[in-house]
Write the structure tokens for this entry.
Amino acid sequence: MRKRSWWVVGAVAALAAVAAGGLVAIRWARRAPLVAATVNGEPIYTAEVDRYVREIGARFGVDFSKGDAARQRAQVARSVLDQLIERALILQEARRTGRLAPEGEVEERLRQIASSFPSAEEFERTLQQQGVSRAELRERVRFELTVRRLLDQMQVPEVSEQEARAYFDAHRPSFDEPERVRVRHILLGTEAEARVALARLRAGESFEKLARELSLDPGSRSRGGDLGLVAPGQTVPEFERVAFSLKPGELSEPVQTSFGYHVVQVTQRLPARKATWEAARRQVVELLRENKRREAFAAWLKDLRQRAKIAVHL
């Protein structure tokens, strides 16, 4: 299965573990002000800074209450606060200019995130385990989509043919296509269920039919289990090892991953290919256009910050 797929604070894919480190939070709160900063009169609370610091610690396995990490905590907190200030500036300007992501887009993105889990129950359980509320996830999604809208609306110079070709020539290996496989799977909850499905497939039943009937993966179930073309690094390691070892048409034994048990079949293999300018041209142009948008966005944000009234209390 595909992994659940710029801006650290706004990254939805994080769904991070903000529930860890309660003792650190208490100690930090005793010596820190209630409000960490104000941005054009809007408060950023120390509790929010603390929550993101815990999130970073949980993500990287760092306990900010002990040893060298404890001495680095204030620096990490200031870095987090700086990003929260930028987030506040972005959202304030988006509201002022009517460019905040609308509810319809937010709802659709939330549905996409939820559908990447084997079931609604698993999605809710993951949110609870990570200490992320539905409301918080919604706001992270809204911010992510708002930044994307603002980026897309940045006015930047066109990418010239000469500019794009020079970039391609300097970075040609990065545009090479790796070996890819077209793969489909049936996801089950137990090894026994996976073995029953495998037996039915070997007896001649249709893979597509069984995937629609049995698979717990809502993202591929309606497509008969089809995950499309997959390159190395796009799926969890256990799944990838099996997928790239199969011949077209061959069925795997049950494969256990964090999602459950999979029966995997490769339907097509595409060999690695060296990139050509003609094939890569559109990708190169879009990459350079995106780089220009990000540079323009950074300049826009720097100007917002210079004009804003920001008071930092940490």
